[in-house]
Amino acid sequence: xxxxxxxxxxxxxxxxxxxxxxxxxxxxxxxxxxxxxxxxxxxxxxxxxxxxxxxxxxxxxxxxxxxxxxxxxxxxxxxxxx
Length: 82
Known about the structure:
Layout: H1 8-11, E1 20-26, H2 30-46, E2 50-56, H3 63-69, E3 74-78
Parallel strand pairs: 1-2, 2-3
């Protein structure tokens, strides 16, 4: 993943670090979730004020456990209503 930024001098405006939330909605996706989170990790060190939210839709696999055990600071929301 490549993060593109503009030089402040190019835009003529002051830099503002706006918060960014990456929301990942999952359902039985433990098989690919780890790879996705691993691919996001390098980019997150370059961008300030980023949070990751994983929303699990009542998965039967270990998607939520995988997200909670990942090295990144991840907020996990679970829908167990089904």
